[in-house]
């Protein structure tokens, strides 16, 4: 259980870092020289980015509940699901803003970093769940 807890804490730390990066990415105007919240810009990437931030927060809360509330071993799968959903929204933000000419800007690159770190946090959470369940499938 201690190894599982350590891995989930590492996953939470990485998710907290990605939350910081996501907030900075959305707050800056490095999306090709413009702000993502400007009315002339497509609003879908901004909405997906905000949802990604909310899902990162939800992932942190769910992971903290699994770590500190000592929930059942089946509940250790919830952080994996949350990290996966978060990665879908970060990918949607990237795809929604992609302009095809390679000049997306530093905020776009920061959101790409958020996506990669969320995937890594999800992989760490999946490994932690595998350690906790010990290869049992529940059948």
Automatic annotation (TrEMBL):
Superkingdom per UniProt: Eukaryota
Taxonomic path: Eukaryota, Metazoa, Spiralia, Gnathifera, Rotifera
Organism of derivation: Didymodactylos carnosus
Alphabetized UniProt keyword annotations: Membrane, Transmembrane, Transmembrane helix
Bilayer-spanning residue ranges: 48-69, 76-98, 110-133
Protein name: Uncharacterized protein
């Amino acid at each position: 259980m201690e190894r599982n807890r350590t891995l989930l804490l590492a996953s939470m730390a990485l998710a907290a870092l990605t939350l910081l990066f996501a907030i900075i990415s959305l707050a800056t105007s490095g999306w090709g020289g413009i702000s993502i919240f400007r009315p002339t810009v497509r609003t879908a990437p901004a909405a997906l980015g905000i949802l990604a931030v909310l899902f990162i927060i939800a992932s942190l809360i769910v992971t903290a509940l699994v770590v500190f509330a000592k929930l059942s071993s089946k509940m250790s799968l919830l952080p994996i699901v949350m990290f996966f959903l978060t990665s879908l929204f970060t990918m949607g933000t990237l795809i929604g803003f992609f302009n095809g000419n390679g000049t997306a800007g530093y905020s776009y690159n920061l959101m790409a970093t958020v996506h990669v770190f969320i995937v890594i946090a999800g992989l760490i959470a999946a490994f932690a769940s595998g350690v906790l369940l010990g290869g049992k499938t529940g059948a």
